[in-house]
Design a protein that fits this description.
The structure is a single chain. The chain is mainly alpha-helical. The chain has two domains: 22-380, no CATH class; 390-548, no CATH class. It contains 23 helices and five strands. The protein has a five-stranded mixed β-sheet, sandwiched between helices. Strand 1, helix 19 and strand 2 (427-428) form a beta-alpha-beta unit. The longest helix has 32 residues, at 16-47.
Length: 549
């Protein structure tokens, strides 16, 4: 009866409806700012320390191919890569117009693409689930994913193919229920699918499932369905000659596929793709979270996900397909090949948090996912760099070398290609010419050591290198360690004044993981034995690999 009776004397309180309206406006503003805030968080995450590490070996190959003249680009892709040409054409144009090939420049498009992926995953989850909480949760998980971080900071095509397949599926699903411009949305989905195919062959798994889905939708006119499926099929057929040539050239390099076989580790990593990164932080927990989410998605009947079967095929079916193909000899059990499934697995995890019953299970899944992501980000953002510090090694040797010095290194591609890219021209340990150079005792030797952990003790390196060098008639004059996840050590050996070779007890280095390059040099046991001239180029090295594999 007296609506303002509780108001202070001389002041009228506002009606309740006005307060509700203001509260709604405040909530709407917070809701509108949530997604930009998550995208901003992702951009900061992906841009931080973007150029701190040297190029990874796969980045070296990508940049080297992209720097070819445009007329020779397709030939370079066909002989040096096992991917379609779209990304390399883009990187060629990007580096050419910018005029720089610094690490942060080559990686910048990937970082920006990663930020765009966050918004695209939000769109996909909104179309699939129609719940803002699920969409925002999926976007947040994408921004914090150590897997997305890894490829958003690499000059490679994988984050681009993730964005393309996500946009293709989201646009195609949106076309089914759009009030207008349905044909335009479906065409956009087809363009995204074709682009994904031309970015990486594994996108074919997503495109195949999407084409089957479109072909069975009565909501689309028959000619629309035929145009969608036909255009994707044509795009795939056009890539067949290139794929055949790449396979003929590269399938002999067994070292490329050794790590992609079916093992317990590779299976666990592939099925937990969005939660693994450069380092397996809380790996078991990540597997449990991912598998639990996929099981809930397949088993749930609550109707939270509109196209549950399609999402289940894309999130769970693709890892299973990679497992089956690998068991048949295809060697595809790597997380980068499962990248096309990562956005859909992220949406599945976010949906499982809401769909899980009892609710405590959803809380556990969300908590586990955040813990794994947090541990992965902490392990990834490190001040000492991540990839082998080939850039630092090259600068250090050039600053201290003298005329006539010889650089020795393992021909392992993981270290050899980055060293070549940064300007070193080493002789490979174990080659005939290298043995002759060492036996002559006429040169100072810069030996680049592999096989050390992330924080090797310089004293242990010195002790181990000294005993190995003495057996060859040399003494260690200088040692420098370059810490990373897998560290490099540079050892300068100088000939002894006399040819006597003192015998010292030599035990395994306290921090050596796979033995020492110096030990292999001393005993003559090299991984690859071949003849090679001093001053090899990148092309010579690739020919060297073809000869020894």
């Amino acid at each position: 009866m007296f609506p303002f009776v509780d108001a202070p004397f001389g002041r009228r309180s506002r009606p309740f409806s006005v307060k509700v309206t203001q509260l709604g406006r405040s909530s709407a503003w917070r809701s509108r700012l949530a997604l930009p805030a998550v995208i901003g968080l992702a951009a900061a995450n992906f841009l931080w320390q973007l150029g701190s590490s040297s190029y990874f070996v796969d980045e070296v190959e990508s940049v080297t191919v992209a720097l070819h003249p445009f007329s020779g680009l397709l030939h370079a892709v066909s002989t040096n890569e096992i991917s379609p040409p779209a990304y390399f054409v883009f990187l060629h144009e990007w580096l050419g117009h910018v005029g720089l090939s610094a690490e942060w420049v080559a990686r910048l498009p990937s970082a920006l693409c990663g930020a765009a992926l966050v918004g695209c995953v939000y769109w996909l989850a909104s179309v699939l689930c129609r719940r803002r909480a699920i969409a925002l949760g999926a976007a947040t998980l994408t921004a914090l994913s150590p897997f997305v971080l890894e490829y958003a900071q690499l000059a490679q095509e994988y984050v681009f193919v993730m964005l393309s397949v996500t946009a293709a599926v989201a646009a195609t699903l949106h076309a089914e229920n759009a009030d207008r411009r349905r044909a335009l949305w479906l065409a956009a989905g087809a363009v995204g699918a074709i682009l994904a195919l031309w970015l990486h062959y594994t996108a074919g798994l997503v495109v195949l499932a999407l084409c089957v889905w479109v072909a069975t939708r009565d909501a689309f006119p028959r000619r629309w369905r035929g145009a969608f499926v036909g255009s994707c099929l044509l795009a795939g057929v056009l890539l067949v000659p290139l794929f055949v040539k790449q396979y003929q050239v590269l399938h002999r390099r067994t070292s490329v596929s050794l790590s992609a076989g079916v093992t317990t580790t590779t299976v666990e990593r592939v099925f937990a793709t969005p939660l693994v990164g450069r380092v397996d932080a809380l790996g078991v927990l990540g597997v449990l979270v991912a598998v639990a989410a996929l099981v809930i998605l397949v088993a749930s009947r609550r109707g939270i996900v509109r196209e549950r079967r399609l999402l289940a095929v894309l999130a769970a079916g693709i890892p299973v397909a990679l497992l089956v193909l690998s068991a048949l000899g295809a060697h595809l059990m790597l997380t980068r090949y499962a990248a096309v499934a990562a956005p859909f697995m992220i949406v599945a995890i976010a949906a499982a948090v809401v769909a899980a019953r009892p609710r405590a299970l959803g809380v556990l899944i969300a908590t586990g996912a955040l813990l794994v992501c947090g541990a992965g980000l902490r392990a990834s953002h490190r001040t000492r760099g991540f990839n082998l510090d080939a850039r630092g090694v090259a600068r250090y040797i050039r600053a201290h070398e003298r005329p006539g010095d010889v650089v020795l290194a393992s021909s392992n591609p993981g270290s050899a290609l980055p060293l070549l890219y940064y300007g070193l021209r080493p002789d490979w340990i174990g080659a005939t010419t290298t043995t002759t150079l060492v036996s002559a005792h006429a040169h100072r030797l810069w030996v680049i050591e592999l096989g050390w952990d992330s924080s090797p003790d310089a004293t242990a390196v010195l002790e181990y290198a000294q005993s190995a060098a003495l057996t060859l008639g040399y003494r260690v004059a200088r040692v420098r360690v370059f810490p990373a996840v897998a560290s490099l050590a540079v050892v300068l050996d100088v000939p002894l004044a006399s040819r006597t070779r003192p015998v010292l007890a030599r035990g395994p280095a306290r921090h050596a993981r796979d033995g020492s390059d110096l030990e292999r040099l001393a005993t003559g046991q090299a991984r690859r034995a071949s003849t090679r001239d001093h001053g090899a180029t990148y092309r010579d090295y690739l020919h060297h690999l073809d000869q020894v594999n």
